[in-house]
């Protein structure tokens, strides 16, 4: 329980109940870095946590499945790179791992696609896959890079994103969102979306390979014709 009600007022928190959820804002002046929140009563929380174990375990399992499915889908772009670079899986994996951010890996895929894919339908499908992956990545990042707030019963009640930004002269720390049934359903839907995207990528890979090979053969035939001339 990192944010107690009394500490919220003392630290200058402003409640914002708009659709984006609550945020924490801190004034430039009057902020005391030495002011700590009260220590949680861990013994009481642990004693009461058994009654909420099923829901907590279910939420944790969903988050684990989300992270697992996302990582599996990201690794599918190794095969996309392999086809676009006309190389073997090991070489494509080395290139993939050398680029140490997802954004850099997708940038390379998009740039190679522009020069390797001539079929507009294939290019459009790849663009759709990347767009869907990016949207699901936002949800993965939301749950993978946040703090989780527990109540006195050990229930996961809120997520709190960790992102500092300055808005109109005030520092804003993250966004607090309720972990209610609607949010849990949204998380489950994201996992289903990850699964469908994975199946779509497996269906797409043979199309991509055939398209790139056809383009390469056309380029080769054109080069041979010019040589004979």
Q: Point out poorly predicted stretches.
A: 1-22
User: What's the number of helices?
Assistant: 7
User: What Rg is obtained from the alpha carbons, in whole angstroms?
Assistant: 24 Å
Write down the overall mean pLDDT: 84
Structural class: alpha+beta
> How many separate structural domains?
1
Helix content: 55-70%
Instruction: Please summarize the sheet with the most strands.
Output: 5 strands, antiparallel
Secondary structure tally: strands: 5
Strand content: 5-15%
What's the end-to-end separation, in Å?
78 Å
Order of helices and strands: HEHHHHHEEEEH
Principal-axes geometry comes out as: elongated
Characterise the protein shown here.
This protein has 229 residues and is α+β, with helices and mostly antiparallel strands. The chain has one domain (5-29, 41-212). The chain has helices at 5-10, 42-48, 53-85, 89-98, 102-116, 120-144, 181-228, and strands at 22-26, 146-150, 156-161, 164-167, 170-178. Helix 3 packs across helix 4, helix 3 (53-85) runs antiparallel to helix 6 and helix 6 (120-144) packs antiparallel against helix 7. Residues 1-22 have low confidence and may be disordered.
Give the helices and strands, then pairings.
Elements: H1 5-10, E1 22-26, H2 42-48, H3 53-85, H4 89-98, H5 102-116, H6 120-144, E2 146-150, E3 156-161, E4 164-167, E5 170-178, H7 181-228
Antiparallel strand pairs: 1-5, 2-3, 3-5, 4-5
């Amino acid at each position: 329980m990192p944010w107690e009600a009394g500490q919220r007022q003392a630290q200058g928190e402003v409640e914002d109940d708009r659709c984006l959820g609550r945020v924490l804002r801190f004034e430039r002046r009057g902020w005391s870095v030495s002011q700590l929140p009260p220590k949680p009563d861990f013994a009481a929380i642990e004693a009461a946590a058994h009654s909420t174990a099923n829901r907590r375990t279910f939420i944790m399992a969903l988050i684990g499945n989300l992270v697992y499915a996302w990582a599996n889908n990201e690794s599918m772009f190794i095969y996309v790179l392999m086809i676009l670079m006309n190389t073997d899986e090991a070489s494509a994996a080395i290139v993939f791992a050398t680029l140490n951010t997802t954004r850099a890996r997708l940038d390379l895929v998009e740039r190679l696609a522009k020069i390797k894919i001539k079929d507009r339908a294939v290019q459009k499908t790849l663009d759709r896959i990347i767009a869907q992956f990016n949207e699901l990545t936002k949800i993965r990042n939301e749950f993978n890079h946040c703090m989780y707030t527990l109540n006195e019963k050990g229930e996961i009640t809120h997520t709190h994103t960790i992102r500092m930004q300055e808005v109109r002269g005030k520092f804003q720390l993250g966004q607090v969102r309720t972990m209610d049934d609607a949010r849990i359903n949204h998380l489950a839907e994201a996992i289903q979306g990850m699964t469908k995207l994975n199946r779509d990528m497996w269906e797409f890979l043979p199309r991509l390979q055939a398209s790139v090979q056809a383009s390469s053969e056309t380029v080769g035939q054109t080069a041979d014709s010019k040589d004979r001339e």
